[in-house]
């Protein structure tokens, strides 16, 4: 083995997980653009957050849920307001604050996109049984927990080294 102590299956799972995520998100994005045109992913997510709350939200809350800075959420809301997808309204209890409400047109887009998300999920999972899906959910939960726990620890030094071998010509090369 080229890297003694390495795990072929661990590497293959991680690479397949990343590739599957990338391909699935690209297909969702393709369908998203087909359904609702040039609304950005962050714009769509902001509309989904507001619509999902069932009530107008302060910009700060929307930004927190989307992990955006206050400057980024202001710019995003400006764009959504220009496109008439949201309205900024006075806060009923604090005149220094604003709330962001979704328009009926934006609600229609959210309904369309959520239907598209569900249809894409079904299509991506075609041929995967319900039992297999449940197993994937459980396995991914374990992988995610491991990755999240790693993020709170210092990056460990790499102890694994590539094994070197001598070629028939006598030169040192990496093992294959």
Explained architecture:
- With 176 residues, the protein is mainly alpha-helical.
- The protein has a domain at 8-123: Winged helix-like DNA-binding domain superfamily/Winged helix DNA-binding domain (Arc Repressor Mutant, subunit A), CATH 1.10.10.
- The protein is built from six helices and four strands.
- The strands form two sheets. A two-stranded antiparallel ribbon has the order 1-2.
- A hairpin with a 5-residue loop joins strand 3 (164-166) and strand 4.
- The longest helix is centred in the N-terminal third of the chain and has 29 residues, at 8-36.
- It is elongated and about 80 Å long.
- The chain starts with 7 loop residues before the first helix and ends with a strand.
- The mean pLDDT is 90.
Properties at a glance:
Arc Repressor Mutant, subunit A, mainly alpha, 6 helices, two-stranded antiparallel sheet, single chain, 176 residues, two-stranded antiparallel ribbon, 4 strands
CATH-assigned fold name of the domain at 8-123: Arc Repressor Mutant, subunit A
Fourth CATH level, the homologous superfamily of the domain at 8-123: Winged helix-like DNA-binding domain superfamily/Winged helix DNA-binding domain
User: How many E-type strands?
Assistant: 4
Oligomer: single chain
Strand content: 5-15%
Cα distance, first to last residue?
8 Å
The structure class reads mainly alpha
Outline the low-pLDDT stretches: none
* Share of residues in helices: 55-70%
Q: What is the 3D shape?
A: elongated
CATH architecture of the domain at 8-123: Orthogonal Bundle
The helix/strand series, from N terminus to C terminus, equals HHHHEEHHEE
């Amino acid at each position: 083995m080229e890297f003694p102590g390495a795990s072929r299956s661990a590497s293959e799972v991680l690479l397949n997980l990343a590739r599957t995520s990338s391909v699935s998100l690209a297909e969702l994005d393709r369908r998203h653009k087909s359904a609702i045109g040039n609304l950005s992913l962050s714009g769509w997510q902001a509309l989904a957050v507001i619509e999902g709350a069932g009530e107008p939200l302060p910009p700060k809350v929307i930004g927190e849920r989307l992990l955006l800075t206050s400057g980024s959420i202001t710019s995003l809301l400006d764009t959504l307001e220009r496109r008439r997808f949201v309205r900024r309204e006075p806060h009923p209890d604090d005149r220094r604050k604003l709330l962001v409400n979704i328009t009926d047109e934006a609600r229609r887009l959210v309904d369309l996109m959520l239907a598209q998300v569900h249809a894409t999920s079904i299509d991506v999972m075609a041929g995967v049984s319900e039992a297999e899906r449940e197993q994937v959910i459980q396995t991914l939960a374990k992988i995610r927990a491991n990755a999240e726990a790693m993020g709170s620890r210092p990056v460990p030094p790499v102890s694994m080294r590539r094994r070197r071998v001598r070629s028939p010509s006598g030169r040192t090369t990496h093992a294959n």
